[in-house]
Known about the structure:
Layout: E1 9-10, E2 16-17, E3 21-23, H1 39-50, E4 55-62, E5 74-75, H2 82-95, E6 101-107, E7 122-123, E8 140-141, H3 144-164, E9 168-173, H4 178-183, H5 198-201, H6 203-216, E10 222-227, H7 238-250, E11 255-259, H8 294-301, E12 308-311, H9 317-326, E13 331-334, H10 344-349, H11 376-400, H12 409-427
Helix pairs in contact: 1-2, 1-11, 2-3, 3-6, 11-12
Amino acid sequence: xxxxxxxxxxxxxxxxxxxxxxxxxxxxxxxxxxxxxxxxxxxxxxxxxxxxxxxxxxxxxxxxxxxxxxxxxxxxxxxxxxxxxxxxxxxxxxxxxxxxxxxxxxxxxxxxxxxxxxxxxxxxxxxxxxxxxxxxxxxxxxxxxxxxxxxxxxxxxxxxxxxxxxxxxxxxxxxxxxxxxxxxxxxxxxxxxxxxxxxxxxxxxxxxxxxxxxxxxxxxxxxxxxxxxxxxxxxxxxxxxxxxxxxxxxxxxxxxxxxxxxxxxxxxxxxxxxxxxxxxxxxxxxxxxxxxxxxxxxxxxxxxxxxxxxxxxxxxxxxxxxxxxxxxxxxxxxxxxxxxxxxxxxxxxxxxxxxxxxxxxxxxxxxxxxxxxxxxxxxxxxxxxxxxxxxxxxxxxxxxxxxxxxxxxxxxxxxxxxxxxxxxxxxxx
Length: 429
């Protein structure tokens, strides 16, 4: 029988996701300066819950206040007090009001912490992010006892969100954040038991998964987000990823989300980085033009049976169905379209053939100044500016209940930059 987008998915732990569409994790920036969920987050996730996805993933919930991915992240770096627990519970209640799942994506930004948050973030090794503009600081290598503490923080965070009413958890080991940094020989240059061989580089991730599982029990969904590859020379490659997926299946994870890229090589956004993309030994299909990582997931399916979620680029319903039919994906992740069309899942299930491609009409520079985007610094700036447009849409959804698709990229960038400065000032009081 053909699996459709409307069909439910039963996970190894026994949990049932009501359909095959998921709202992928997207950073919201709507927490207080102290990392507490707000009514704005509740409003945003209530809209998404009403939108029909079988599962919603939160944006980064960080396990350390000094290692945020951006100002406005929710963070849980200690046992929640009564106010924090109440805010988490209220958020979870709004996000599950339509009977869908709501999973917490838990993370540590490592060297991808902005300098305004921490000028000397901790990382596997002191390898600075290779982006122009000076937004990121000089990383400091983690000591062994700090690594052990980080593993414990992931478990503590997982237990806290379960207690608050979240229905699952995803450990973020992709996109160049800390666990992804450990996996990459380019950013992990350690010579101890956490560096060198792939088994050593994967040790922190595997220890984290074990600790999280112990904290939440066998019937609570535990997922991992993993790069298919970093697409950088000397980085985490597809062969590495395939082996890690096999280890994660053996460890009993319930779902693996396949993505790819880092800040330096933002493959996850479908754009070129500031360096040449490192090719991977994976056959490409016509689907690859629509969904960036579907072919990697298809190659993984030959090795593992754990449910796979694929996120990145899906817009056409027929491509989503092809991914299900081929076995490449059990769950389809939707991201940027839901920054404006919050009910995209309901519309697809009702017969819509294709979601809007907002990113195709967005640019920082007008066409007559497009040549400016050829320099590395301005190219990076233009990429982040388009991302800020999506950030601004989430901000407006949270504050006012509706998006503003006519907003310019330039104005969105100004708005988000000003908001982030305000949040940083609030942190430092």
